[in-house]
Design a protein that fits this description.
This protein is α/β, with parallel strands linked by helices. The chain has two domains: about 200 residues, 2-enoyl-CoA Hydratase, Chain A, domain 1, CATH 3.90.226.10; about 50 residues. About 50% of the residues lie in helices and about 15% in strands. It has eleven helices and ten strands. The protein has a six-stranded mixed sheet, sandwiched between helices. The chain has a four-stranded mixed sheet with strand order 4-6-8-9. Helix 1 packs parallel to helix 3 and helix 3 runs parallel beside helix 4. The longest helix has 20 residues. The radius of gyration is 19 Å and the shape is globular.
Length: about 260
């Protein structure tokens, strides 16, 4: 059975963690494949948005497959190799220039929560649960993932989640800003794809520029960032999509953007 599926649907691609018998727990091979798949989607000009989800509705993913740890994460050397693979997957998702959404049913724990945090947005079904059980395994969570958690929920809630290793229910996750949409289970898929179809219909260069802009602000607006952002903002005025957007507005019709 293929453990990660890619399901294209027009301009939206869905990446599915496909181990429902293990609550979609992510094996080392899956971490490696996740980075490769995401990098490929980032370069695919036909893709304008990416959804990450688990097979079925019981779990987004239960996290890394802990049954592998005795072989693949048994000491310092093997942990370094393992962490290189997980870091590559997180970095690929964070660095994807397309809008990314984690669509969460059920459990989203440990490494799966880091995947969700690496996405731009998190939409969840009622009954979803989130948690980082690192403190129950004597693991210190990666710095980049902790930084994202702090950015999303603030330092006090980040400490609470990491110190206690408790499960956070969907209502609390919405209240603290970890997720952006909370929907009935039967509505989540429809609402997620409706939202992304709206995003995919907008100008790709503008959406991509907004993503770069926000990330630059989070990193701190250095002069290097400011120079790059000014260049991006000016480049769009020479694009076909800028001309199309203007024409469509004046002609009172929906624009047809090509991403160039």
């Amino acid at each position: 059975m293929t453990e990660i599926l890619v399901q294209p649907d027009g301009a939206i691609a869905t990446v599915v963690f496909n181990r429902p018998e293990r609550r979609n727990a992510i094996s080392l091979a899956m971490w490696q494949e996740l980075a490769r798949i995401t990098e490929g989607l980032a370069k695919d000009e036909s893709v304008r948005a990416v959804v990450y989800r688990g097979a079925g509705t019981k779990a987004f993913a239960a996290g890394a497959d802990i049954s592998e740890f005795q072989d693949n994460r048994k000491d310092r050397a093997s942990a370094i190799r393992y962490n290189e693979q997980t870091d590559a997957a997180y970095k690929a998702i964070r660095g994807c220039p397309k809008p990314t959404v984690a669509m969460v049913y059920g459990f989203c724990m440990g490494g799966a929560m880091a995947i969700a945090m690496a996405c731009d947005l998190r939409f969840a079904a009622e009954g979803a649960k989130f948690g980082i059980p690192a403190a129950k395994l004597n693991i210190i969570y990666p710095a980049d993932a902790v930084a994202q958690l702090v950015a999303l929920v603030g330092p006090a809630y980040a400490k609470d989640i990491l110190y206690s290793a408790r499960a956070v229910d969907a209502a609390e996750a919405l209240a603290i800003g970890f997720i952006q949409r909370l929907l009935p289970k039967d509505d989540l898929e429809r609402a997620t794809y409706e939202y992304l179809r709206t995003v995919a219909a907008n100008a790709p260069m503008s959406v991509r520029g907004s993503k770069v802009m926000i990330q630059s602000i989070l990193e701190g607006l250095t002069e290097t960032h400011r120079t790059r952002l000014r260049q991006l903002a000016l480049e769009v005025f020479e694009s076909e999509d800028y001309k199309e957007g203007t024409r469509a507005f004046l002609e009172k019709r929906p624009p047809r953007f090509q991403g160039r």
